[in-house]
Amino acid sequence: MHERNPLILVVDDEGSSLRLLTALLQAESYNVLTASNASEAMEQLQDSLPDLVLTDGMMPGVSGFELAAKLKKDARYATIPIIIVTALDDREIRLQALKAGVDEFLCKPIDRAELRVRISNLLRLKEYSDRIRRNNEILDNTVRERTSQLHDSYLQTIQTLIRAAEKKDEETGAHLQRIAYYCKELAEKVGMDSAFTDLIFRASPMHDVGKIGIPDRILLKPGALDYDEWAIMRTHTTLGANIIGENNVSEELRMGWEIALGHHERWDGSGYPLGRKGDEIPLCARMMGMADVYDALRSRRSYKEPFDHQSSVEIILKGDGRVSPEHFDPELLAVFPKVASSFSEYYAALTDSHPL
Questions:
Q1: Domain with CATH 1.10.3210.10 in the chain
Q2: Among 102, 210, 331, 338, which has the minimal tally of Cβ within 10 Å of its Cβ?
Q3: Is the pLDDT confidence value at 141 over 50?
């Protein structure tokens, strides 16, 4: 049953009882530790972890019942079976022992056959329990390992999507890095927890993966798009959502789907593709919308020259005819002045020639 002989801790304040129990247990090939009181028992437990504790119930000072209750409340010892030995055999004593978490009882004088059976049964149950716990630990470790592998696979998928989008658009990898930092900064300033801020940092670069499906003649056209071309360009939101897929196990891909679909929606309902407004737009998409507008204002496009930082901030806060404060979540708009300087630093540091 065991690779080694089980170790039993015997606790009894009476020397004769302690010697008798030790002799009986050693005759059954058990290894034995002894203690004459609860304090000594706790000291023994610091050095060796027994397979079972056999303690007298009515010891002076800290009783065996109190010792049992203390052990059962301690995670280090909670699974160790405990047998209470007592000269008293009444209902109240047994209830007291059960409340303390005791597993078995033995009445004095000790019957050797009963001692053997009760100890053997408890040790067998403990072995099964330990085996189940070890198997659960192995299973938990396997699940964690497989989950980690799956998560790494999802991150590789995300990076593949992002790289594919980069190849199609004039917007560069530095732009995608900046977007990630802008969104994380916004999330932190509005009080989102670290799980959300880390997630949006990883998911936000997927916002324009739908541009993979936009024809180059439109995507790379110098100058302004006509009405029909603009209608096609707008479909990059739904194309991106379709590429990522709505029902994903990965949190990154789920948020990436929300961002790809919703980052051109506006708080006042004037955005696309669904014309959603207010809280109907996922928070991550609202953050992405603000970050994207700032970066677009700062960047050179075939149809416009870049704005400087201060002009970009003024346009977002006050509007310029194309951009309006009503486009943005009021809470995000309120914190934008607090993050604007960080946005400027990220823009300066994260360029094509000097990415972080």
A1: 169-349
A2: 338
A3: yes
Residue listed under structure tokens 């303390």: 100
pLDDT of residue 193 exceeding 90: yes
* Contact status, residue 211 vs residue 219, Cβ threshold 8 Å: yes
Do residues 231 and 312 make contact, with C-beta atoms less than 8 angstroms apart?
A: no
Do the beta carbons of residue 330 and residue 310 sit within 8 Å? no
Residues 50, 8 contacting (CB under 8 angstroms): yes
Which pLDDT tens digit goes with each residue over 307-327?
999 999 999 999 998 999 999
Concatenate the DSSP letters of all residues of 172-183 into one string: -HHHHHHHHHHH
CA 273 to chain centre: 33
Helix, strand, coil: what percent of the chain each, to 5? 60, 5, 30
Query: 304 in helix, strand or coil?
Result: strand
Cβ-Cβ contacts under 8 Å for 148 (sequence gap 6 or more): none
Q: Is residue 54 within 8 Å of residue 8, measured between CB atoms?
A: yes
Single-letter residue type at 344: S
Instruction: List the CATH code of the domain at 7-138.
Output: 3.40.50.2300
SS3 336: helix
Alpha carbons 6 and 1: distance in angstroms, whole number: 10
Instruction: Compute the CA torsion angle 64, 66, 68, 74 (nearest 10 deg).
Output: -150
**H runs (alpha helix) in 57-210:** 64-73, 91-100, 112-168, 173-189, 194-203
Rg of the chain on CA atoms, in Å: 35
CATH number of the domain at 169-349, please? 1.10.3210.10
Stated pTM of the model: 0.59
Using alpha carbons, select from 317, 318, 350, 352 the residue that is nearest to residue 182. 350
- Range(s) within the chain of domains with CATH label 3.40.50.2300: 7-138
The SS3 call for residue 36 is coil
Using left for φ > 0, alpha for ψ between -120 and 50, and beta otherwise, residue 313 falls in alpha
Q: Vertex 197, ends 207 and 312: CA angle to 5°?
A: 60
